[in-house]
């Protein structure tokens, strides 16, 4: 397919200076509806008893295995506040899931269609990607009332290449604002480089450094309408707060890395048996 660079010079200049970019109306109402309906189907088919197994002996191993295997599966992860003390869900499973990941873009045809579309490739070509792959995808719910906080972080910490190439593509499937847990970022923080890495070792995953302390006043909310795409530089400090509102904040998130002249770090949490196919080669 023919790929056309989608971003103009003003958009690229803003992205280079701020570390993020909002592209309004990136996804059509039909695309949003298709992804939301497909996720409803996946949730309806999901047997939540399979992911809430508890063992006093090897719970950490069970949890780690489920997480690691999600790199090549469609896996379901609950909100921390979804369970009662007896281990049962407080409410229906569709209101208890935190996210679904991390291979929707490969396995499910609806999410694959959007993730490998010409407009996604055109955006990445504009950013200078030579041979990009989508390394992970997530459907994020930010449930009403219990949607958890995502602490300040950089995407390159989790998906590290040498040199660093990770870019986050965060698509709002519902309006996102300060009430229901929109993204917040420190504009220009990508220029300060990578702070720490999230590593996978023999005993699980861990950060190699403590997180720095950040001032709330330095963060700016990124409020967007449904269909808007937020492009996030891999070194940008960003976060989201808990959702205490009665309104959810669904989003579909992709993370992309380049495979042209770059090396995937062997101590990343994702260890693929088969490398995904590139979206294109330029």
TrEMBL record:
The keyword Oxidoreductase applies. The keyword Ligase does not apply. Keywords: Dioxygenase, Iron, Metal-binding, Oxidoreductase. SUPFAM superfamilies: Clavaminate synthase-like. Its cofactor is Fe cation. InterPro entries: Phytyl_CoA_dOase-like. One of its GO terms (molecular function) is metal ion binding. Pfam families: PhyH. PANTHER family: PHYTANOYL-COA DIOXYGENASE DOMAIN CONTAINING 1, PHYTANOYL-COA DIOXYGENASE DOMAIN-CONTAINING PROTEIN 1. This is Phytanoyl-CoA dioxygenase. The lineage of its organism: Eukaryota, Viridiplantae, Streptophyta, Embryophyta, Tracheophyta.
